[in-house]
Amino acid sequence: MHADGYAGFEDLYRSGAIREVACMAHVRRRFVDVHRSQASPIAEEAIQRIAQLYAVEKEARGSPPERRLELRQAKAIPVFDDLEVWLAQQLTRISGKSPLAAAIRYALTRMARMRPHLANGALELDNNVAERGMRAIALGRMNYLSVGSEAGGKAAAIACTLIETAKLNGVDPHAWLADTLARIPDYKINKVDELLPWHWSR
Questions:
Q1: How many other C-beta atoms are found inside a 10 Å radius of the C-beta of residue 83?
Q2: What's the pTM value of the predicted model, to 2 decimals?
Q3: Domain ranges across the chain
């Protein structure tokens, strides 16, 4: 599961049935915040080093998982390893109570959890795709106070999931919903899954 460092997720990982893949964008964001507020050269270098990892991802984007894995193993692993060593070194040279130290400690605690993407071409360096999909929900959260009930909230969650699934499958959500809502009353209940977005796109 791609996720940020929210402590509430730890229960999900405890059994080992779900493995975390940490998010580099959340690590980077902390250094960006420090650099904006303090113009820290160490934070700036951290951002530049992370940018090298994103350059590999840009080169790998759109390639099959096997090719992405080859590129990461050839180009990203050395950068990733150097970043981890460099961060640990910087931590010994600065005040442990500074915002920069907090950013470095956060990064170091996430490094092992970001490593799975280096060994699996189907994984990502960050979870920005999921976060972009959730942005509309976050922006509209005040509106969702009016769903009326727990059942209404569940229905809204299902609707949002289907809409985002349609988008991920290259399907126009409005066209799919209009077609599906028109067909569903007369559709056989045991074949209703045929109306899901990934079937509709074919």
A1: 21
A2: 0.69
A3: 2-118, 140-200
